[in-house]
Amino acid sequence: MKRDERWKGVYSFEDSPFIMEILTELRDEKTGPIAFRKGLVRLGRYMAYELTKTMDVEKVRVKTPLEETKGMIIKDRRNVVIITVLRAAIPLMEGLIKVLEHARVGIVSASRGKAPKFEIEMKYVKVPQVKAEDTVIVADPMIATGSTLIRVLDEVKRYGKPKRLVVLGVLAAPEGISRIKEAHPDVEIFVAAIDRELNEKGYILPGLGDAGDRAFGEPVRP
Ligand code: URA
């Protein structure tokens, strides 16, 4: 885990060869939907494992069949809420929950509304109560402009004040991180890697394309 000097509370996993290998497969245009979804699940699992290193632990005593000895539990792992931002976060959440198996899960949809306002519309919001001891993890693979996440974070904050509010993604553009940190300075951001920039259509460069389409196929309007 590497802290990015450009912001406070922003970390990437660019120093983890294993996470970088999974990311490389996701970036590859030849990777089809089955391998892409599997890659997102694996990233979720290993990023959650890395995240546990930042969690508070508690010393406990444990009795083996032979004698009593010292042990520990990760206290914060018992108090996690994962917010899944539809669609591409579904496989990422599946991976996260393998390590954070006690997590309560919220599901939200967020999409850009019509011109001229382009307001972010959240049509589906199912979020559990957030408690003071919770670590809330908002999972969204692609942090591009940051607009969707800012709106999701506004909404999540209505459900209670957690101990930690974390955004966990696969790739981020510097523009998106700056906008989120400006709107929500209290939020910690963890991503596999921080890419160069956004193109004129709001895609992350070099990126991996549209994560939702690559995982689930391109939607059409009948
Ligand atoms: N969403 C994606 O899926 N990809 C991008 O590059 C930006 C936003």
Key phrases:
222 residues; 31% helix; alpha/beta; binds uracil; Rossmann fold; two-stranded antiparallel ribbon
Task: Provide a descriptive summary of the structure in words.
By secondary structure, the chain is of the alpha/beta class. It has a single domain (2-216), classed as Rossmann fold (3-Layer(aba) Sandwich). Helices cover 31% and strands 28% of the residues. The strands form four sheets. Strands 1, 2, 5, 6, 9, 10, 11, 12 and 13 form a nine-stranded mixed beta sheet that branches. A two-stranded antiparallel sheet has the order 3-4. Strands 7-8 form a two-stranded antiparallel ribbon. Strand 11 (142-143), helix 4 and strand 12 form a beta-alpha-beta unit. Helix 1 (17-27) runs antiparallel to helix 2 (33-52) and helix 2 crosses helix 3 (89-99). The longest helix is centred in the first third of the chain and has 20 residues, at 33-52. 38% of the residues are buried. The mean pLDDT is 96. The site of uracil has 9 residues, from helix 6. Uracil (URA) binds at residues 142, 144, 202-204, 207, 210-212.
